[in-house]
Design brief:
Elements: H1 2-26, H2 31-49, H3 55-65
Helix pairs in contact: 1-2, 2-3
């Protein structure tokens, strides 16, 4: 059961990131906003599903935004 939850969580991370990227690209948003949207979607999925320790998503977001 736990392996399925983790697999589903990572699948949601990748699908949501690709979905946000595709949608914002379709809207012809500038690249910085597009990347920011993808970073936020990845961070939220990692926090919601608690796949990694709690400090990792915020660290990832900080490093990618800088």
């Amino acid at each position: 059961m736990i392996k399925n939850k983790i697999l589903f969580a990572w699948l949601c991370v990748f699908v949501s990131a690709l979905g946000v990227y595709a949608y914002l690209s379709y809207l012809q948003v500038d690249k910085d906003s597009l990347y920011f949207g993808v970073i936020i979607s990845i961070t939220l999925c990692l926090w919601v599903f608690a796949v990694v320790p709690d400090f990792i998503p915020s660290l990832l977001a900080l490093l990618l935004i800088l």
